[in-house]
Design a protein that fits this description.
The complex is a heterodimer.
Chain A (H helix, E strand, L loop, with lengths): L3 E3 L4 E4 L4 E7 L6 E7 L6 E7 L2 E5 L2 E6 L4 E6 L8 E8 L9 E2 L3 E6 L1
Parallel strand pairs in A: 2-11
Antiparallel strand pairs in A: 1-3, 3-8, 4-5, 4-9, 6-7, 7-8, 9-10, 9-11
Chain B lengths: L3 E4 L2 E4 L4 E8 L5 E7 L6 E7 L2 E5 L6 E7 L2 E7 L7 E8 L11 E2 L3 E5 L1
Parallel strand pairs in B: 2-11
Antiparallel strand pairs in B: 1-3, 3-8, 4-5, 4-9, 5-6, 7-8, 9-10, 9-11
Classes of the chains: A mainly beta, B mainly beta.
Chain lengths: ~110, ~120
């Protein structure tokens, strides 16, 4: 079983839809969870960062962590064509341990006008 | 120039060539990173430098050799690469305050490397 799994997509939705992006993981030691957005021919940019379980909201984006199920989600409300990108989840166990950052393979999202 | 820049943006090299990738950050950060991103595979951390000292070498083959001459510049020297090394190589920087996860990493656009 891979350490972090993510549906690669591509996911295609109409403009204005609610998008749900998900990752599952196997390592119960993970405590830090991040979502990155990567546009074509660009580097990833950090969207959301959460610690432990719970929800975090930032504008149209909501990150949700369920540690009991080892499942994290990113919801995008009122999706826009500019949200079309690849979304990477990432997670880690120890705050100061660089080598514990594990990325998912990314989900490609396309928002159709 | 702003943010994190990388040159060249595209590179094609033979297996016997020697080349170098360059990264420059204009953000005043003190930590820099090299990542490898292969098609349909997760991002892989290769090297981390904090205050110009290597703090992480993630079991990377010796045909990849990093160099960090100062806090603004990072190089990745390549020699005798294999076709499976073809990938997007991303550089990132952050302000290292002792926590890898609280320090937002800013990525460059990457160098698309093809090894023939």
């Amino acid at each position: 079983q891979k350490e972090v799994e993510q549906d690669p997509g591509p996911l295609s939705v109409p403009e204005g839809a609610i998008v749900s992006l998900n990752c599952t993981y196997s390592n119960s030691a993970f405590q830090y969870f991040m979502w990155y957005r990567q546009y074509s021919r660009k580097g990833p940019e950090l969207l959301m960062y959460t610690y432990s379980s719970g929800n975090k909201e930032d504008g149209r984006f909501t990150a949700q962590v369920d540690k009991s199920s080892k499942y994290i989600s990113l919801f995008i409300r009122d999706s826009q064509p500019s949200d079309s990108a690849t979304y990477l989840c990432a997670m880690g166990a120890m705050k100061t341990s660089y080598d514990k950052v594990i990325f998912g393979p990314g989900t490609s999202l396309s928002v159709i006008p | 120039e702003t943010g994190v820049t990388q040159t060249p943006r595209h590179l094609v090299m033979g297996m016997t060539n020697k080349k170098s990738l360059k990264c420059e950050q204009h953000l005043g950060h003190n930590a820099m990173y090299w990542y490898k991103q292969s098609a349909k595979k997760p991002l892989e951390l290769m090297f981390v430098y904090s205050l110009e000292e290597r703090v992480e070498n993630n079991s990377v083959p010796s045909r990849f050799s990093p160099e960090c001459p100062n806090s603004s510049h990072l190089f990745l020297h390549l020699h005798t690469l294999q076709p499976e090394d073809s990938a997007l190589y991303l550089c990132a920087s952050s302000q290292d305050q002792g926590g890898a996860f609280t320090d937002t990493q800013y990525f460059g656009p990457g160098t698309r490397l093809t090894v023939l």
